[in-house]
Amino acid sequence: MSRPAQPELKKFMDRRCFLHLQGGRQLSGVLRGFDMFLNLVVDQAFEELGGGQRKPAGMVVIRGNSVSSMELLDSMKV
Question: If you compute the radius of gyration of the chain from its CA atoms, what whole number of angstroms results?
């Protein structure tokens, strides 16, 4: 039996990210941790409400299967 591949999220660690979640919700914040199920710990999080409005959420844990997509807001160091 083969082991599941580890997620390639190390390059996103400690960087600001924007997350698109199921149900049309959006969140931004700093990725602080993840596990093999792609559950995420996001610090300094804000729920993006649209129209430039943001609601502070602090530190949140997001279940991996609720994440539709993730994009990096900070520039990558090469």
Answer: 13
Angle 66-71-76 from CA coordinates, rounded to 5°: 140
Write the CA distances from 40 to 1, 46, 51, 78, integer angstroms.
26, 14, 26, 24
Q: Which of 1-10, 15-24, 34-43, 61-70 has the lowest mean pLDDT?
A: 1-10
Average pLDDT over residues 7-11: 80
Q: Which amino acid is at 66?
A: S
d(CA 63, CA 41): 9
Taking phi over 0 as left and psi of -120 to 50 as alpha, with beta for the rest, 10 belongs to alpha
Residues, the chain: 78
